[in-house]
Design brief:
Blueprint lengths: L2 H4 L4 H10 L1 H20 L5 E5 L12 E5 L2 E9 L6 E3 L2 E7 L1 E9 L5 E6 L7 E5 L1 H4 L4 E5 L13 H4 L6 E6 L10 H12 L3
Parallel strand pairs: 3-8
Antiparallel strand pairs: 1-2, 2-3, 4-5, 5-10, 6-7, 8-9
Length: 198
């Protein structure tokens, strides 16, 4: 018996609940996006030990991890901000939020600790951005963490900013570097860096 049957809930009733509760719809859509991402890109025999870290563990970022070519890879998944989408000149552009859900203390590579919602350079390996709202199709754009834009927020010093990712980033379809429409060239580069392979 599935959840809808156990809760005695019809698909129409579930649709009504989701339509009337934007915050629930957003949370649900995020989990659906992660599921689609794993199924579409990371479910074949090249990937092993797929796991999902505890949502409440603020010391580990990444929505899921796996082993690829003997390297442990962490993936952070994000989604478009629907209201930011603009169309024209053969491309669609938008923005997505790329930050931690809560303010937390993080230790920078220079040994200093700061409180921030920014994600740290190197805190995960691969970013996957869900672009469903561009075309109502399950497309993703991928980028290496180390190539993402850094924060420009003046509250941080120039030394701190080089370690902190921007919290709002631009994205387009077709994607432009550092974003790509498939993850494998990026995964191979990550493996080469992690394992020192040529």
């Amino acid at each position: 018996m599935g959840i809808l049957e156990r809760w005695k809930l019809t698909p129409d009733e579930l649709n009504e609940i989701l339509e009337s509760r934007p915050s629930l719809r957003g949370i649900t859509f995020g989990y659906v996006s992660e599921y689609k991402l794993r199924k579409l890109w990371f479910s074949d025999k090249r990937f092993s030990q797929l796991s999902t870290p505890d949502d409440h563990d603020r010391t580990r970022k990444g929505d899921f991890t796996f082993i690829y070519k003997d390297a442990h890879i962490s993936v952070e998944a994000k989604s478009l901000q629907t209201r930011s989408i603009k169309r024209g000149d053969g491309a669609v552009v938008g923005k997505f939020q790329c930050d931690a859900s809560d303010r937390r203390a993080i230790r920078l590579p220079n040994g200093k600790t700061i409180e921030t919602t920014c994600l740290l350079v190197g805190e995960f390996d691969l970013l996957a951005v869900n672009l469903f709202e561009f075309s109502q199709e399950w497309r993703f754009a991928f980028a290496k963490n180390t190539e993402l834009p850094r924060t420009r927020y003046p509250k941080y010093t120039p030394q701190q900013r080089k370690y902190l990712l921007a919290t709002l980033m631009d994205i387009s379809w077709p994607p432009k570097p550092p974003f790509f429409d498939e993850p494998f060239r990026l995964l191979d580069e990550i493996v080469k860096r992690k394992l020192g392979r040529n």
